[in-house]
Structures are given as C-alpha cells and as structure tokens.
Amino acid sequence: MPVRIEKNKNLTTAYLSGEIDHHSCVLIRDEIDKTVNMVAPRELCLDFMHVSFMDSSGIGLVMGRYKLMHALGGRLRVSGVSRSAMKVMKLAGLDMLAKIDCKGETK
Amino acid sequence: MKALNEMKLTLESRSVNESFARVAVSAFVASLDPTVEEISDIKTAVSEAVTNCIVHGYKNTMGRIYIWVGIFENNVVKIRIRDRGCGIADIAQAMAPLFSTEPEERAGLGFAVMQSFCDKLSVRSTPGKGTTVTLIKTIESREQC
Ligand SMILES: Nc1ncnc2c1ncn2[C@@H]1O[C@H](COP(=O)(O)OP(=O)(O)OP(=O)(O)O)[C@@H](O)[C@H]1O
Ligand SMILES: [Mg+2]
Fold first, then answer.
1. Structural domain of residue A90, as residue ranges?
2. CATH number of the domain bearing residue A72
3. Which residue's alpha carbon is nearest to atom 20 within ligand 1?
4. Closest-CA residue of chain B to A92
5. Least CB-packed of A64, A103, B51, B54 within 10 Å?
6. What residues does ligand 1 touch, defined as CB less than 6 Å away?
C-alpha cells in the first residue's frame, strides 16, 4: 500500500511511500479523500519522507488535497519533501498554498 | 548528426508502464555517468511525456507509445516520445503553465516541468494524428566519454 493514514480529529497524517505518478496517484488520492471526508480533521499532513520519485501528478495530489481541506475549513501541511520533489513543488508554487518541510532541513 | 548510441522502446499505453519507461530511459543514459540530480530530472521529464500520451493522447483508448533515445557527442541526450493519439490543436496554449484540459485533478504543469528539467523541449502535433515530444539534455558528466 503506497499510503498509510493515521486518523485524528486534530491532525490526520498520510504517510506516502514509493513513487508518486499518475498510476499510483489514483489509489492514494481515493484513500486520503475517503478518510478526510470521514474524519474532517482540522489539519491534514502529507508526509513525503518515504517518497522516492514524484512528477507533476504529485502536484495535482497536493493541490487537490489543499482544495479539499480548504472546503472543510482546515489546513494542509506537507513534510519530509526530498530535494528533487521540492524542485517540482516549487515550480508549481505549492509553497504558497501549504507549509512545506524538507527532508533534513539543516544545511 | 549520427548518434553514438541509441535505443528504441515501444510500450502499450497502460499507466503501469509509466514507471518502466522512466527507469528504462534513465538506465540507458546511465552510461554517461550522470549525477543523481540529472537522473532524477530525466526520469521526471520522461514520466511527464509518457503520462501525457496515456491520459491525453490515448484518453479512453489504448495505443502504442514510441520512445527513442539517442546519445550524441559531448554528452548530448535526445529523447523522443511519440503517440498516435488525438493530437493537440493549439500547442502554445497546451504548453502554457497551468493550462490543462483536465483541471480537476491535473495541475497543467507537465510541459513546464519538462521545460525546466531539460535544456530544450520541442512539441510537434497534428490533431487526429498524434504528438511527438523531443527532450534534449546535456549531461555534465564527471568524466567525458
Ligand atoms: N500527448 C498528448 N496528446 C494530446 N494532448 C496532449 C498531449 N500532451 C499534452 N496534451 C494537452 O496539453 C495539456 C497540457 O499538458 P501538461 O502536461 O502541461 O498538463 P496536464 O497533463 O494537463 O497536467 P499535469 O501534467 O500537470 O498532470 C493537456 O491538458 C492536454 O490537453
Ligand atoms: Mg501532463
């Protein structure tokens, strides 16, 4: 399973893993949306720590979850983003929509 | 100019092949000793082009995706990805950042990603006939071959 979700009313975290592309995205998206619609958390965190690859499908994933959380009156956070995934996210200006923490922030 | 080395790959437009396509191309280019970042740039750009063939070119149908990779002098890599799908009527509009014909789940940034992760991107397309995307990237190898 490319996503494991920890449900909590205050903060629900989706731990993503493996490669995020158009193929794997569909399953991840459905799984997260099912939980978020059920729990309606105040904050959703997408954890990218164990993501080894991401293309623009990942941008769609983050943007779509941002819209969903916005509609529910909650917030979105993104964490554990690798250097290469950050390159894709910055291009999309995702850092304007959500707080993004990188892998090993210290440098 | 003649390629020093080249490869061809034909794939069915199934989404499960997206990962195979980018891994195969990056493995072929690995002979140039690229950096981790260069490999990741190539994988991402190839993934964008192949995904576009599947979700747009062959939307609701199944077809073949033709990939050609050539390695030229001075570590220049050319990657051509072609489909015989629906084609693009307005290429300039399609390439504009944030433009997408599927705006609900897609960001419309595939071409922008290809553009910024490669040195050169060119798109040729004929409505009803198909689309060819060519990516060019120079690998700043640690050692010239
Ligand atoms: N191979 C193709 N065949 C037909 N149309 C295409 C093809 N590639 C791209 N397009 C058209 O160009 C538009 C822009 O493509 P681009 O990859 O930039 O964004 P996207 O695929 O819509 O979203 P994203 O790549 O961010 O998920 C697409 O929405 C589609 O209409
Ligand atoms: Mg695309």
1. 3-106
2. 3.30.750.24
3. B108
4. B109
5. A103
6. A 56-57, 60; B 48, 52-53, 56-57, 83, 85-88, 94, 99-102, 106-111, 131
Q: Look up residue B131 and give its two tokens.
A: 């689309």
- The predicted-structure confidence for B22-78, as pLDDT tens digits, reads as follows 999 999 999 999 999 999 999 999 999 999 999 999 999 999 999 999 999 999 999
Of A83, A87, A92, the CB nearest to B107: A92
- Give B78-112 pLDDT, tens digit per residue: 999 999 999 999 999 999 999 999 988 788 999 99
**Exposure class string for B1-38: b at 16+ Cβ within 10 A, else e:** eeeeeeeebebebebebbbebbebbbebbeebebeeeb
Close Cβ partners of B127 (under 8 Å, ≥ 6 residues apart) = B86, B87, B88, B89
H or E stretch including B106? Answer: none
Determine which residue's CA is closest to atom 31 belonging to ligand 1. Answer: B101
Cut 0.90: pTM above it: yes
- The CATH architecture that domain B5-138 belongs to is 2-Layer Sandwich (3.30)
CB pairs under 8 A between A and B: 59
A25-46 residue pLDDT tens: 999 999 999 999 999 999 999 9
What is the ipTM score, two decimals? Answer: 0.89
Residue A19 is nearest to which of B19, B37, B51, comparing CB atoms?
A: B19
**Residue of chain B minimizing CA distance to A59:** B107
